[in-house]
Amino acid sequence: MSKRALITGITGQDGSYLAEHLLAMGYEVHGLVRRVALEDPERRFTRIAHLLDRIQLHAASLESYPSIFQVVSHHEFDECYHLAAQSFVAESFSDGFSTMNTNINGTHYMLAALRELRPACHFYFAGSSEMFGKVREAPQSETTPFHPRSPYGISKVAGFDLTRNYREAYGMFCSSGILFNHEGPRRGFEFVTRKITSTVARIHYGQATELRLGNLDAKRDWGHAEDYVRAMHLMLQLEEPDDFVIASGESHTVREFCELAFGEVGLNYRDYVVTDERFYRPAEVESLIGDSSKARRVLNWRPRYDFAQLVKLMVQNDLEFVSRGSVGLARRSAGPD
Ligand code: NDP
Ligand code: GDR
Asked: Is 239 a catalytic residue?
């Protein structure tokens, strides 16, 4: 009997890679999507267009408990990966209220519906290194205290606490991944890595002359999303629920990312990058580096891509993308950076 999984946020970067990974393992894959997405498939389903005949989509809103209840009542789900969220940290400063509403209540609704209808379903919560924020130690592990620095980070701490509370109060199999930044060719254009690689490609083809960025000295622990979704699945196969840091263990500045990305097309980033106050955040997470030794030991998880491979792959992908004329279109639909 194949297992049945429900993925919220299936149209996002991680949801699309996870759906592919689960399908390859013989899962029956269901996705929870917004009704507006179902009504605008050409624009909203770009990351899962190649999977549409192999997955089942259900309309629901993270803001509505009844709609979630309805989807969960459809099938006996074995696993639920709750990935849907307002995931852009900068946007959470502009509209903290809706970020909190979507990310905290949405998680609570998912947990409550599963408790009511599918208490045996294994649940994954998409926690984040943003929960560490103003870090108390380096590297950060499962025992590092949280100090979030944005409404987004605060919402993820609340989701993490809710997930642990359902595990402890109701004995449900609820696990959180504390994932550090992970990227790839399907990354949204508003995040700094894709903003850099897509602009490098546009500069290379003469469609742009500069790249405007905020804090170039911020340090992040970057990996490839394909590697990180494998860890999500491994967490739900354990005998007991638990929380895991997933990270590469290497930290690089935004500046280093620029240096490598521009280097891929033989350019010097100093000639094109302009710092712009608009892209600084009211409170910055300056430096992150993860200690994923627990995941490596318990889950036997290892990343396959390193930092240099990731940058190269993303630049190559965007060069192809721009040469096909797709970046302009995609950037417009992604909205402002
Ligand atoms: P994306 O931003 O690419 O995808 C977010 C998904 O959430 C989309 O499918 C989006 O749907 C959906 N969504 C957003 N708001 C709502 C809503 N109100 N109702 C229903 N669905 C909604 O994120 P990622 O794939 O990068 O990340 C997946 C999860 O992992 C997120 O929770 C994120 O916070 C977390 N995370 C990500 C990390 C990373 O580096 N990528 C690191 C750590 C945690 P739509 O397409 O309709 O907008
Ligand atoms: P982050 O990712 O906030 O870490 O959250 P993002 O790529 O947005 O920022 C990384 C760092 O780059 C700096 N930066 C800029 N960022 C953006 N987006 N645009 C710019 O122009 C720019 N200039 C400098 C930022 O200040 C920051 O320090 C991501 C998301 O995927 C979250 O959902 C996830 O939880 C965390 O990673 C782990």
From this structure: no
- Residue 247 and residue 221: Cα distance in Å, rounded? 7
Q: Give the alpha-carbon dihedral of 73, 21, 251, 107, to 10 degrees.
A: 0
Q: What is the mean pLDDT of the chain?
A: 95
Q: Are strands 28-33 and 55-59 parallel, antiparallel or unpaired?
A: parallel
**Quick check: CB of 288 below 6 Å from ligand 1?**
no
Alpha carbon nearest to ligand 2 atom 27, residue? 218
CA atoms within 13 A on the CB side of 245: 24
* Residue with CA closest to ligand 2 atom 10: 192
Which residues, 6+ apart, have CB-to-CB distance to 169 below 8 Å? none
Amino acid 41: pLDDT: 86
pLDDT tens for each residue of 189-234: 999 999 999 999 999 999 999 999 999 999 999 999 999 999 999 9
Q: Ligand 1 in contact with 92 (CB < 6 A)? A: no
Q: Is 130 a catalytic residue?
A: yes
Give the nearest ligand 2 atom to 218 CA. Answer: 28
